Amino acid sequence: MSIGISNSPEDERPSTGDRSEDRPTERTSEGPSIGTALKKARIVAGLTVDEVSSTTRVRIPIVHAIEADDFTRCGGDVYARGHIRTLARAVGLDPAPLVEAYDAAHGGRPAPTPAAPMFDAERIRPERQRPNWTAAMVAAIVAVIGFVGFTAFGGGAGEKRPQAEGSPAPKAAPKQPAGKPAQPQQSPAAPKPEPSDSAIAAAPKDMVTVVLTASDGDSWISAKDHSGRLLFDGTLDIGESKTFTDKESIDLVLGDAGAVTLFVNGKEIKDKFQPGQVERLTYTKDDPAQGPAQAG
Which residues cross the membrane (predicted)? Predict the structure, then answer.
């Protein structure tokens, strides 16, 4: 029989006659050759050469060659015996008689050799998986972005940032119903504190001095010097006073100007600020000589 490579319907049917060939076929003791026995068993099992190759990992050309009793493509007697056993088990045959027939036709079984992966060289090996460098680079970039984001937004979470000038006061006075005068946020018996005479008299002449007293209720205040440095930012409780000095000017933001008594350079500012009114004011060392306080 000649070696057939294609897997056509004619290859799947049992051969009805022998073709002339240059080499003898190895026949089992009961008659059919090794290749014929394997091919008939494969056809009876309803398997194609492709299916047998996929199951046994023996390449398709070698399966065709063995079924044609051509063992020269196996790479030697050891590999040929291994392929015969593998294909016989795949198609449901006992491999022992077929191996014995092969040994009888090829000078007997050789001496045992040390165990080794004998058939891996001829079987289809899966392609070696290469490292996925793209996924590794994406993961590295994500890690760097996450670290930068944490440093930028999480690192200063515990720091107290001063409130920018011009922003709304965090504590606004509640709205009063129409027609009703605003009521001071204090008990009627609370005495009205006044700044001490010593604090007013001690105001230096070459600097601007501002004294704030929460006389009629709590008030949020913010104070900065002429360079914009924050001197105070917080709530002035009722009865509490704060004094600020600078060589050029003091910038104020009063959250509830009507609740605060204001002295500048030892003189009280008599502006009629309403309860709950937010005021932004700036005073220099010449105020209030030129009249009312200068609006910031």
Answer: 133-153
Give per-residue pLDDT as tens, 59-77. Answer: 999 999 999 999 999 989 9
Q: What is the pLDDT of residues 109-143, one digit of tens each?
A: 655 555 555 544 445 555 566 767 788 888 889 88
Question: HSE-up of 133 (CA within 13 Å, CB side)?
Answer: 1
* Rg of the chain, C-alpha, whole Å: 51
Mean pLDDT of the chain: 74
Tokens of 17: 């006659």
Report the half-sphere exposure of 279 (CA within 13 A, side-chain side). Answer: 23
Which one, of 68, 55, 71, 59, lies nearest residue 120 by Cα? 59
As given in the structure block, the two tokens for residue 120 are 């891996």
Q: At what angle do helices 60-67 and 77-91 cross, to 10 degrees?
A: 90
Contact assessment for residue 52 and residue 87, using Cβ atoms and an 8 Å cutoff: yes
The structure tokens listed for 178 are 């129409």
**Cβ atoms 207, 246 nearer than 8 A:** yes
8 A C-beta contact, residue 288 and residue 269 = yes
What are the structure tokens assigned to 62, written together? 């070698």
Among residues 202, 201, 199, which one has the least CA distance to residue 212? 199
DSSP state of 273: P
Site of tokens 């196996």: 74
The CA distance from 26 to 249, in Å, is 114
**d(Cα 283, Cα 47) in Å, to the nearest integer?**
101
**Rounded distance, CA 63 to CA 74, Å?**
10
